[in-house]
Design a protein that fits this description.
The complex is a heterodimer of chains A (about 450) and B (about 350). Helix content of chain A is about 35%, strand content about 25%. By secondary structure, chain A is an alpha+beta fold. Chain A has an 8-stranded antiparallel β-sheet with strand order 15-12-14-13-17-18-16-19. Chain A has a 5-stranded antiparallel β-sheet with strand order 5-6-10-8-9. In chain A, strands 1-2-4-3 form a 4-stranded mixed β-sheet. In chain A, a hairpin with a 4-residue loop joins strand 5 and strand 6. In chain A, helix 1 runs antiparallel to helix 3, helix 12 packs antiparallel against helix 13 and helix 13 packs parallel to helix 14. Chain A starts with a helix and ends in a 14-residue tail after the last helix. Chain B folds into 3 domains: about 70 residues, no CATH class; about 120 residues, 3-Layer(aba) Sandwich (Rossmann fold), CATH 3.40.50; about 120 residues, 3-Layer(aba) Sandwich (Rossmann fold), CATH 3.40.50.1860. In chain B, the strands form 2 sheets. Chain B has a 4-stranded parallel β-sheet. Classes of the chains: A alpha+beta (about 450), B alpha/beta (about 350).
């Protein structure tokens, strides 16, 4: 190990390699329920060249490498399950290009959501990117790689759908590019080439290290507004969502159902965000959204919450602070959720399952969803807060999470950014030949099995 | 504890039978009638508990309470009929969720108070307005446990008013006034004053304390603080709220206040008896087109008369219209804050 550490220090500098116990402790866990698993060391590269050299060194020493962005995945995907090094990408945080006409940005692998958000606000106020409801230090690359979603997902799909290209250091140290940037100096998109980006998205860091990526940008509007639809029958939700998305004017739609505060218990809410260049356009879009669900208004079974502009502000913050508030409801810093990627028509079933599991396990819960595309699917989330200092509370949350994962798969959904036990549940349901292909691909990319080992492996 | 009021709304059908002008409907700014005869027919249907298009089309602006020359409570009766016939103006989930949201939380605690006791109703975000010389020594009471509950008139929920208002009155007495030996309270908002001085008697609900309207309180204080006043010399447009329709006798007091602080209440088209709804309630009723129209009319009217400030006494009106007013170059401000400007506070 000493030989490796010396080699790493030569690559990144002494200050950016650490085997200090306190560092290893901090990097051993995230805020979720997965048990701690400490790395042997932490390395912080500053360039693609350094990442490439690190991977060569790791291969030479057969030492596992776990790439990490913000470390906020909550499902323990950036824990060093078999030791080795955490490759913390945060130093690679440069925004290398913004193309305002073709609307994309190229950023390094450790660039955070907050950095790009602030940069665009200052330098390109006419543009914005899709921001996930995560703390601003969450990285763009990390979120794209887990098929994240955000406040423009009705407009643009999953964040992986908004990817225009990647620069990736393979487990063996080669630097490859996917998308147009592999042929051209422009990072406009993945078409018309074979889409090799798929080799790195959804793989939980087991196939390579993303050092640069291009992402789509969208128009930033001067006028923005929000509607909140309310009904009290979960069975109505798929139809309501379908109607609202059919207007094709919303940027974001996020249903939420929570027992806290008490007045909200039992009601289904859908926050619908939209923007426009003028007030007239904004009103036109609002009217389209309202007209789409007129049938519910006429039956008096649903409608839009009356909300004067000052009250809307808290709901229009990007990212939303509400989830963070809920995350600390039990105090003690424990929070995890199951994001179930599933078809819209399972909404009511998913809601009922969530209430049942939470009540059975006596856990604090909040449920919601993010609609992706024009109602093409949703990320239905079951969020459980727990007190990390209270083992019994944590165990209840863990059990609720496991049961939720099982229920998700039973409903035909798939747990998002699945933690280890959920990965096993998915593998059990996955077509065997598909899983075999995944293994063959990884064998080809990572012959020494050094990339985030322990993930996507049959137990 | 007095529990739920069981008395019917004070209303005499004979007065309506003999009424020749039907002002309650003929003066309505939102529903058209071909002539007095048609209005009377619709009014008599309402009185008889039958369906009338008025029950569907009503904006719930309270204005008919003011228009009736006989104080025969036409609006309270209309809301009673809406509820009896199941004609909720807003979608059911909106109503039921609001009922929970604005319901008493049981978090009230006994507190000693000293006059003036200022009731801020369910608007804790505005308690900062009770400050300075104007409110020197004031005790503030606030929260959903003392919420006046008059908003349910907009939701066809007289039953909620009958159930909750007596409890709120009991809470005000039991937790604040009685033990402190105080028997009067300043109502910061028209809603509260309207509830305790107009709605409660009409609903047969006893009120054991004296309510003082904010305008009366400010007007008296300005006399005491006269040497501190620096005239503002500004033109103000007043957005008269629906709840002031219940207590029109307080409107001239505002004129006195504005005169004392050197502000001119510019003669808007939509002021006094001709005041227009701010647009907030139609949005509750999912009538956004109408709400947009009302907002536009109000703003254009304020611009036409060259108002520098738009003054509000209703927090909901201010929340609804404030941003739009500001975007059009007019400063939205609560009346108490405008007065404090004149007092140099």
């Amino acid at each position: 190990m000493k030989e490796l550490i010396d080699r790493l220090k030569k690559i990144v500098g002494d200050r950016f390699v650490s085997e200090a116990p306190e560092e290893r402790y901090i990097y051993s866990m995230d805020m979720g329920t997965m048990p701690a698993s400490a790395p042997d060391l932490v390395v912080m590269p500053a360039s693609t060249e350094e990442v490439s050299k690190i991977m060569e060194a790791a291969n030479a020493h057969q030492v596992p490498v776990t790439p990490m962005g913000g470390g906020l995945v909550l499902s323990g995907l950036t824990r060093a399950l078999k030791g080795g090094m955490i490759l913390d990408m945060k130093r690679m945080n440069r925004i290398t290009e913004v193309n305002p006409k073709s609307r994309y940005a190229v950023v390094e692998g450790g660039t955070s959501q907050g950095m790009l958000q602030a940069y665009l606000k200052k330098n390109h106020p006419e543009l914005k990117h899709s921001v996930p409801d995560a703390p601003p230090i969450a990285t763009l690359a990390g979120n794209v790689c887990i098929h994240g979603s955000g406040h423009l997902s009705v407009l643009g799909g999953y964040h992986s759908d908004m990817l225009t290209g990647m620069e990736v250091v393979l487990p063996t140290g080669e630097v490859i590019r996917t998308g147009s940037c592999s042929v051209s100096s422009d990072w406009f998109g993945k078409a018309p080439l074979p889409d090799l980006s798929g080799l790195f998205m959804g793989w939980a860091g087991t196939t390579g290290v993303v050092t640069r990526l291009g992402i789509k940008l969208f128009p930033s509007y001067r006028y923005n507004d929000l509607l909140i639809f309310v009904c009290d029958d979960a069975e109505d939700m798929p139809d309501v969502i379908s109607r609202l998305t059919s207007t094709q004017v919303a940027e974001d739609m996020t249903p939420w159902m929570t027992p806290i505060p008490e007045w909200a218990r039992g009601f289904m809410h859908i926050n619908i965000a939209y923007g426009a260049h003028s007030k007239a356009e904004l009103t036109f879009k609002r009217n389209l959204l309202q007209m789409s669900v007129k049938a519910y208004k006429d039956k008096k079974t649903g409608g839009f919450l009356p909300m004067p502009p000052p009250q809307k502000n808290r709901y229009m913050k990007i990212p939303t602070p509400d989830l963070v508030r809920f995350a600390d409801v039990r105090k003690g810093g424990g929070f995890e959720y199951v994001g179930a990627i599933m078809a819209i028509e399972h909404f009511a079933e998913a809601y009922r399952a969530g209430v049942e599991i939470a009540e059975k396990n006596e856990v604090s819960y909040s449920m919601g969803a993010r609609i992706v595309g024009a109602g093409h699917s949703m990320m239905f989330f079951y969020a459980y807060a727990f007190n990390r200092a209270d083992q019994a509370d944590m165990a209840r949350a863990q059990k609720a999470l496991e049961e939720t994962n099982a229920a998700t798969l039973e409903m035909g959904g798939i747990p998002w950014k699945a933690e280890l036990p959920a990965q096993q549940q998915i593998i059990e349901k996955m077509a065997p030949d598909t899983f075999a292909l995944m293994n063959r691909i990884r064998e080809a990319l990572d012959p020494n099995h050094i990339m985030n080992p322990g993930n996507w492996e049959r137990a | 504890m007095r529990g739920i009021a069981v008395e019917a709304i004070k209303f005499d059908p004979e007065i309506c039978n003999q009424c020749e002008t039907v002002d309650c409907l003929m003066k309505c700014q939102y529903i058209e009638f071909t002539d007095v005869a048609e209005a009377k027919t619709e009014k008599l249907k309402i009185n008889a508990g039958e369906h009338s298009r008025v029950l569907d089309e009503c904006l719930t602006c309270y204005a008919c309470q003011e228009y009736c020359p006989y104080d025969n409570n036409p609006f309270y009766l209309l809301v009673e009929r809406q509820e009896q016939l199941g004609l909720l103006p807003a979608p059911t989930p909106i109503v039921t969720e609001q009922l929970k949201m604005m319901g008493p939380k049981g978090k009230i605690q006994k507190e000693a108070v000293t006059p003036p006791v200022v009731n801020m109703c369910a608007f804790p975000m505005l308690t900062g307005s009770v400050r300075g010389k104007l409110f020197e020594g004031a005790s503030v009471i606030v929260g959903t446990d003392i919420f006046c509950n008059i908003m349910w008139l907009h939701f066809a929920k007289n039953s909620t008013i009958k159930e909750r208002v007596p409890k709120m009155i009991d809470n005000i007495m039991d937790y604040y006034l009685r033990d402190s030996g105080v028997d009067e309270m300043v109502c910061f908002h028209d809603e509260c004053y309207g509830t305790y001085t107009n709605l409660a008697p009409a609903f047969g609900i006893e009120v054991p304390f004296k309510s003082i309207h904010l305008f009366d309180y400010i007007n008296d204080r300005l006399d005491e603080l006269a040497d501190r006043i620096t005239p503002l010399n500004v033109k103000v447009a007043y957005q008269r709220p629906c709840s002031n329709r219940l207590i029109p006798e307080t409107d001239p007091v505002l004129d006195e206040i504005l005169e004392k602080i050197g502000a001119e209440r510019v003669p808007r088209t939509y002021d006094r008896e001709n005041a227009l709804c701010c647009g907030g309630v139609p949005r509750v009723h999912q009538r956004d087109d109408l709400a947009d129209e009302l907002v536009e009319k109000n703003i254009n009217d304020m611009l036409d008369v060259g108002a520098a400030y738009c003054i509000f006494n209703c927090p909901f009106c201010m929340a609804t219209l404030g941003q739009e007013v500001a975007e059009n170059g007019i400063m939205p401000i609560l009346i108490s804050d405008l007065v404090q400007m004149a007092l140099g506070e």
